Amino acid sequence: MREALHAEWTKARTAPGTIWLLFGTAGLTVALGGLVTASIRCGYAGCGQDPAKVSLTGIYLGQAVVGVLAVLAMGEEYSSGMIRVTLSAMPRRETVLAAKAVILGGMVLAAGVVAVLPSVLMGGLLLPGEGFTAGNGYPSLSLADGPVLRAAAGSVLYLGLIALLSLGVASAVRDSAVAIGIVLALLFLFPVLAHFAGDAAVQRHLEQIGPMTAGMAIQDTIDLASQPIGPWAGLGVLAAWATGALLAGGMVLRLRDA
Amino acid sequence: MNAGIITPYRPRVRPGHSGFAQLLHSEWTKLRTVRGWIIGLLLVPVMTVGFGAFISSSSECGSMAPGPAGQLVSVPCTAPVGPGGGLVEDQFYFVHQPVAGNGTITARVTALTSSSLQPWAKAGVIIKANTAQGSAYAAMMVTGAHGVRMQWNYTQDTPGMTGPVSAASPRWLRLVRSGDTVTGYDSADGLRWNRVGTVTLAGLPTTVQAGMFATSPQPSSGAQRQEAGHAIAVTGTLDHAGVAGAAAGRWEGTSVGARPIAGGPAGFQQTASGFAVTGNGDIAPDVGSGAGSTGTPVSHTLAGLFLGLIVAIVIGAMFVTAEYRRGMIRTTLTASPGRGRVLAAKATVAGAVTFAGALIGCAISVPLGERLLRDHGNVIEPVSALTAVRVVAGTALVFTAAAVLAVALGVIFRRGAAAVTTAIVVIVIPWFLAVSSPALSTTAADWLLRVFPSAALAVQQTFPRYPQVNSPYHPFDGFYPLSAWAGFAVLLAWTGAALWLAVFLLRRRDA
Predict the structure, then answer these.
(1) What is the SS3 assignment for B253?
(2) What span, in angstroms and rounded, lies between the C-alpha atoms of B356 and B396?
(3) Distance between CA atoms of residues A181 and A190, nearest Å
């Protein structure tokens, strides 16, 4: 496993796109979070906005870049034919997938921290000037606050799980373009369907089972009781999706010719 | 040929068959011989129809009420239809008496009061075909912040005297019926009258209901609605009420279109000096949002398009990137050295097959979805045939332009994953952020839908905006900042710019 990890780390480190995609994840997350944070207003007490969620809106964009990074980690092996060399060198195919998952997860978590910290700090600086004041029922956004810390740390974990989900899908379909299409469709399908579904019960169920809608529940810091799913249970749903995708990917990798 | 740029060998001899038709034929052959792409193309309509049908059949509208045998039965939603054929909101308190033939109603308004006076809260005099919701009417009214208005048949509005009403500055209002026409007058003193407008109400019955009314729309912002906690009503204080041509002369109070859920105070008091009429609701076109809306827009039947769109984008991008991956691009460019023409042929073929698939998908989705929605108790906003064609064909064109954008991005990035992600990020995510999160202010959401290709989904907007209806008109409720074709032009501009860059790079770069 050590050798496998080392090999995967070398591949990831030397691939030309990796570093830019990691920077892109952090940069786009912070940029979108900043734009939304700067444009929002809370006009009255209990305006229904969740300050932690607002400052972490950038994750919606960051996850797309994480998805690209993750599908390329597997997809490039197939498109360049490198997979045959990889599997000749390391015939235990599960080990290859596990090593990729570890390296990818580690890199994405690191990028996630770089993406989330400035977003929350910006929220703490900007939001009090936009009506998120103690008078309107909002303490200032701070990582010392338990739920805010959970939202921030959870968002980093969220990105990690998105990477694993994308890696699993890419291993199963073996083509980066198709894989990222499937990943983004999976993520956005449930909230789009829920938006249009007129039935409140159907809406709730869709939001409970969707990988993105459930996973993003980790960012909720207010009104927890009225959310479709609890924060950790939601992240658990995403983890289940990621596990399922990795299992499917592992199965395909094991059973099919490379 | 550009000096200084090293290009690979390109044969100078014109090949025998290099007409554009030949190019199209070769691209079509490439497309149809890849099994995965054919399956993908079939998925475009299948996804659009399938998920659209799922959404339509999971949109239950209505309430449970005790049936004749005591069991609970579901009562479908209803929405009144105005004389113009559109859905309307028609809820107000009406103090009326029947008037046979031609007649006149006059009243003086001395105050308009409310716990939270809305700009379009209204009270005044009205002549209405009957007390049923959606019947023809003409009214002269005092409003919260828009002076005296004459409004008729829900969608029409014309201004009269300006300024607020008070006991010191009352407003005299008068409606005169003559056959099918009703003329509205206003006056500051009851002596000198100004004509505000003369309108024709087609098919007005001989006996109409004439009287006084009051109603107040609910605040458009959630903030004020939450503060009020209940339906906001307005009270109009009127005196010198008189009807010429009345049969009976006894005032009767009716709460037109009262919905039990809406609650809120409504009624009237007759004192020695006059009347106090209190009501809530609105007499206005349904704009598909807000407390009084029950209509479902046609675009709901096309909710499945997002999956279909993603499939079309993946196929469009792979149509190019697969050539790079397999090295096929070198054969292609050797066979037809005109690189711009190759790209044009690719874009044409990808666009044409996507349009065909999407058009079939949308043309099935809309009637199927409407049927399912009706079966589940929904009221669908009626649209003209021309509008329905615009929604269906426009949506198919959005698919087409998105697929061509993906082709261009495929050339630019030469990597499938990057092309697909970029296309989805610029088309789907701005739309998602704008419509799904009411957190974003209307201004911010509107800008997202002006700048990004998602603007093109305005081709699906069917509810018109009315200045006399105070609604947030947020993209969340299906209101796009740009008109249908202006929005589509934004997508076309992105596609055009991407194609231009793609041709530039294709000519400049080694294959």
Answers:
(1) strand
(2) 8
(3) 15
* Cβ-based contacts of A175 with chain B (< 8 Å): 318, 416
Q: Residues of B numbered 423-462 whose beta carbons fall under 8 angstroms of chain A's beta carbons: which are they?
A: 424-425, 428-429, 432-433, 435-437, 439-441, 443-444
Interior angle at CA B105, CA B99 and CA B107, nearest 5: 145
CB atoms within 10 A of CB B167: 8
Domain extents in chain A: 2-255
CA distance B429 to chain A (A): 8
Give the bridge partners for B373, in sequence order.
none
What H or E segment, with its residue span, contains residue B471? none
pLDDT of residue B68: 65
Sequence-distant (≥ 6) Cβ neighbours of residue B364 within 8 angstroms: B45, B49
Measured between CA atoms, the residue of chain B closest to residue A185 is: B307
Give the B window 155-214 contacts with A, CB below 8 Å. Answer: none
Q: Is the CB of residue A65 less than 8 Å away from at least one CB of chain B?
A: yes
- In the numeric block, the tokens 């079309």 are attached to B312
Residue B88 to residue B217: CA distance in whole angstroms: 13
Q: Residue A1 and residue B290: Cα distance in Å, rounded?
A: 60
pLDDT of residue A128: 83
Question: Tokens at residue A180, please?
Answer: 């990222």
B-proximal residues of A, 225-244, CB under 8 Å:
none
User: B419 contacts in A (CB within 8 Å)?
Assistant: 177
- Tens of pLDDT, residue by residue over B64-87, are 666 666 676 667 777 788 888 888
Distance of CA B169 to the CA centre of its chain: 39
Lowest pLDDT segment from B130-144, B220-234, B244-258, B260-274: B220-234
For residues A24 and A92, the answer to whether their CB atoms sit within 8 Å is no
Class of domain B88-285: mainly beta
- Per-residue pLDDT reduced to its tens digit, B429-468: 888 888 776 567 777 888 889 999 999 999 988 888 888 8
Least confident range of A76-80, B126-130, B206-210:
A76-80
Output A225-234 pairs: Cβ under 8 A, ≥24 positions apart.
Answer: A228/A203, A228/A204, A231/A150, A231/A151, A231/A154, A232/A154, A234/A208
Q: Return the pLDDT at B510.
A: 81
Q: Where in chain B is the domain with CATH 2.60.120?
A: 88-285
CA distance A254 to chain B (A): 22
Q: H-type helices in chain A, by residue range? A: 2-14, 18-39, 51-55, 59-80, 82-89, 93-126, 146-173, 176-196, 200-209, 211-215, 231-255
ipTM of the shown complex: 0.90
Q: Number of C-alpha atoms within 13 angstroms, CB side, residue A147?
A: 17
- Asked if B294 contacts B282 with a C-beta cutoff of 8 angstroms, the reply is no
A20: tokens are 């830019």
Query: What is the four-CA torsion angle of A40, A41, A45, A47, rounded to 10 degrees?
Result: -40
Please give the single-letter amino acid code of residue B444. Answer: A
Q: Which of B317, B376, B433 sits opposite A60 (nearest CB)?
A: B433
- Report which of residues A52 and A112 the model is more confident about: A112
Of the CA atoms within 13 Å of residue A153, those in its CB half-sphere come to 11
Which residue out of B310, B375, B427 would a mutagenesis test of the A interface target, given it has the greatest number of A Cβ atoms within 10 Å? Answer: B310
- Phi, psi torsion values for A243, nearest 5 degrees: -60, -45
CB-based contact A168:A226 (threshold 8 Å) = no
pLDDT exceeds cutoff 80 at A12: yes
Residue in the structure block whose two tokens are 């570093």 = A19
- Cα dihedral value A200, A204, A207, A210, nearest 10: -110
Q: Are B473 and B449 in contact (CB under 8 A)?
A: no
Q: What is the model's pLDDT at position B262? A: 47
Q: Quote the CA–CA distance of B375 and B377 in Å, as a whole number.
A: 6
